Amino acid sequence: MKIQSPRGTEDLLPEVTYKWHLIEDKLKNLATLYNYKEIRTPMFEHTELFQRGVGETTDIVQKEMYTFEDRSGRSLTLRPEGTASVVRSYVQHKMHGNTNQPSKLYYMGPMFRYERPQQGRTRQFHQFGIEAIGSEDPAIDAEVIAFAMGCFTELGLKSLKLVINSIGDEESRKSHREALINHFTPVKNELCDDCNERLEKNPLRLLDCKVDQGHEAMKTAPSILDYLNDESKQYFEDVKAHLDEMGIDYVVDDKLVRGLDYYTHTAFEIMSEAEGFGSITTLMGGGRYNGLVQDLGGPEISGIGFAFGVERLLMALEAEGIDLKADDSMDCFIISIGEKTKTFTSKLLYQLRKEGIRADQDYLNRKLKGQFKQAERLNAKLAMIVGENELENGVINIKNLNTGDEKAVQLDETIPYIQSQLEEEIE
Ligand code: HAM
Q: Is the peptide bond before 6 cis (omega within 30 degrees of 0)?
C-alpha cells in the first residue's frame, strides 16, 4: 500500500509554492514598513506552556493539542499557535530589558491542531502573526489592527469585514463572569457537558461553544460591553477613535470573545465576505493580552497581536479571483547536439549560473526539436546551440527565442553577449 500524507496535512507542490513565496515576501515587506522583526521559536514546547498560556478550558488545550512524551518522559506539545511561544521567549530572553521598546515581533510557520479537517481547517496549517509587547497605548492596538488589515488589502482583497470588541480588564471580566453564571445556571441541564464544566471554570468560554451555539440562552447572554468598568470603556473608546481617524471601517460585535483565554480589552477578527469563500469565514484573529507575560513568569507587561492562516488567505484570494502571477521564465536554455558536447555544455551551464544567469539544459537525450520545445516550455529567452562543429570552430549560435534573431558568437564572448541580450529584454 502506498503511504499517504497524514489526514489534515497538505503537500505544497511547486505549482503553488511560488504563491507562498510571493505572499511571504509581501508580508515581510509589510513587517519592515511597520518596524516588526522576525522571531523563530521551536515547533514544540513544554505542554505546560499552552496549558497556562492558552488556557485549560479552551478547545485548543482540551481537545486539539498534539501532545506526546519524549524518550525522557517529558510532556511536549506541537505548537497550536504562536503567541504563547513568543511570550515565553520574550520572558526567557528578558526582552523587556532591550532598549528598543515595545518589542515588535513577527513570525511565520506551521501550527498544529487536532481538529476535524474541512475546507479552511487543517491539522497542520501555517500562520503569519505579529506580537507587540510592552505598550498599553491604544495607538498600538490601532497599529496592530491596521497591519492586520494591510496583510489582506495589500494583496488586493476587498470583501473584508473587521469586527472588534472589548473583553475589558480583570475587574470588568469578573463582574461579567458573575452575570454569565447567573444567566446560564438555570438552563445548565440543557447545555452540553463541556458547557457545564465551562460554567464552573470559565463561563466566558460558553459563548464560543460550537455545540450549543443555537441555544436561546446564548442569544440573550449578558453583553461584556455592559460590564466594562470606566477604564476599560475609555480604552475601547480610544482604540475606536484611532481607527476612525485612520479611516479603517469596523463593526462592533459584543459576542466576539475569541477562543483563547489570554485576551483582555481589545479583541478583533477579520472575516471574508467573498461569495464562495466557504462556511468558515474567519481569516484572522487577534487581541490584547495584559496578563500573559506575568502568567508565564515575566514582569507586569502587556501585549497585543494577531495571527492568520496563510491557507485561508489563499482561499480568499481565490474566492475574489485574484491570481498571483508566477515569474517562471528562464534566461537561457542550452541545446546540445552530439555526444561529445555534453561535458562542455555542463561546464558552460555552470559558468552561466555563476554569472547569475538562470539557465538549464536537456537531461533526457531529446532530439534537436525536442530540446527547442523544452526551451519553449521553460519560457527561455535565449537558446544556445552547441554542436561538435561549433565546438571545433570556437563559436556558438545564440538564438533570441522572442525575436527569432540568431547570431554566431565567439566562445569567450558568449557571457557578455547573453548579458547584453538580457539587458535589452529588461529595457
Ligand atoms: P486563532 O484565532 O486561534 O488565534 O487563530 C488565528 C488564525 O489561524 C485563524 O483565524 C485562522 O486563520 C488560522 N487557523 C486556526 N486554526 C486553523 C486550522 N485548523 N486550519 C487552518 N487555519 C487555522 C491565534 O492563534 C492567536 N495566537 C492569535 C493572536 C496572536 N492573538 C494575539 N496574538
A: no
Q: Which three cell numbers stand for residue 1?
A: 500500500
Position in ligand 1 atom list of the atom nearest CA 282: 10
Angle at 305 between CA 107 and CA 64, to 5 degrees: 75
Sheet with 395-400: list strands edge to edge.
359-361, 330-336, 380-386, 395-400, 406-410
Confidence (pLDDT) at 200? 86
Is the Cβ–Cβ distance between 281 and 269 less than 8 Å? no
Averaged confidence pLDDT in the chain: 95
Q: How much is the pLDDT for 424?
A: 82
| Cα 198 to ligand 1 centroid, rounded to whole Å | 21
What is the rounded average pLDDT of the residues 301-320? 97
Beta bridge partners of 410: 395
CA distance 85 to 133: 13
Q: Rounded to whole angstroms, how far apart are CA atoms 61 and 84?
A: 12
Separation of CA 307 and ligand 1 centre (Å): 6
Q: What's the mean pLDDT in 224-238? A: 97
Q: Report the nearest atom of ligand 1 relative to the CA of 81.
A: 25
Query: Confidence band (pLDDT; 50, 70, 90) for 426?
Result: low
* Residues sharing a CB contact under 8 Å with residue 175, sequence separation 6 or more, in sequence order: 227, 229
Ligand 1 centroid–CA 45 distance in Å is 18
Q: Which domains, from first to last, does the chain contain?
A: 14-169+229-319 (3.30.930.10), 330-426 (3.40.50.800)
Average confidence (pLDDT) over 43-58: 95
Query: Do 217 and 192 contact (CB within 8 A), yes or no?
Result: no
Residue-wise pLDDT tens digits, 20-48: 999 999 999 999 999 999 999 999 999 99
Å from CA of 83 to ligand 1 middle = 10
The answer to whether residue 106 scores a pLDDT higher than 80 is yes
Number of neighbouring beta carbons within 10 Å of residue 184: 24
Assigned C-alpha cell, 403:
525575436
> pLDDT tens-digit profile of 326-336?
888 999 999 99
Atom of ligand 1 nearest to the CA of 60: 3
Ligand 1 pocket, residue 282 CB under 6 Å: yes
Buried b (16+ CB within 10 A) or exposed e, 393-426: eebbebbebeeeeeeebeeeebbebbeebbeeee
Predicted local distance difference test score (pLDDT) of residue 427: 66
Whether the pLDDT of residue 276 is over 90: the answer is no
Bridge partners (DSSP) listed for residue 270: 162, 284
